[in-house]
Amino acid sequence: MKKLTHELYINKHALDIFLLPSDIQQKIGVFKKMLELEEDVEAQDKQELENQLQKLDGEILADLKEIKKLHKTNKVDTSLEKSAPVKPDTQKKRHSDDILKALIQEKSHTNVPRSKLRALGITVPLSKVTIIGKYCITRTSFFTYRYRISLVSN
């Protein structure tokens, strides 16, 4: 085989084969095995093997270019997200405060499942102890997501 375009592309862009998707890694492995067979094949089958190698080389190169393009577009997208300033939304906090206040007034503030909080509109990530405004949401169960809502004393 005269030239290996996918290997030139990998070397030019300093790509690590082990970081590529598994299907591309498998194609490269098959390509290397077929390339080793080239020396042992008879003259009549050698041309057929070279055609298959060229076809596989083209497929690998196309896959590498597609992965590179996807990586480039995703990299640009993440940099745009980082540059936009994140402003806290006070209206959501007030909305969450109102929901928690209503639960306490209804006397349904103990043993509240996470699914109920999500259904009511609490979108804040809940940890063991989460404070939202003047309310404290405490996880009460170890194996299930159950919470107790209480008023934080000042």
Kindly state the number of beta strands.
4
Indicate the percent of residues in helices: 55-70%
Give the DSSP E fraction (strand runs of 2 or more residues). 5-15%
Specify Rg, calculated over alpha carbons. 29 Å
The chain-level structural class is alpha+beta
Identify the strand order in the major beta sheet: 1-4-3-2
The global form is rod-shaped
Number of helices: 5
Q: How many structural domains? A: 2
Largest sheet: 4 strands, antiparallel
Mean pLDDT: 80
Question: Which stretches are low in confidence, meaning pLDDT under 50 for 5 or more residues running?
Answer: 77-81, 83-87
* Distance from first to last alpha carbon: 78 Å
Q: Helices and strands, in N-to-C order?
A: HHHHEHEEE
Keywords: Coiled coil
Coiled coil: 32-66
What does it look like?
It is a single chain. This protein is of the alpha+beta class and 154 residues long. The chain is 57% helix and 11% strand. It has a four-stranded antiparallel β-sheet with strand order 1-4-3-2. A hairpin with a 6-residue loop joins strand 3 (135-139) and strand 4. The longest helix is centred in the middle third of the chain and has 41 residues, at 43-83. The relative contact order is 0.09. Keywords: Coiled coil. Residues 32-66 form a coiled coil.
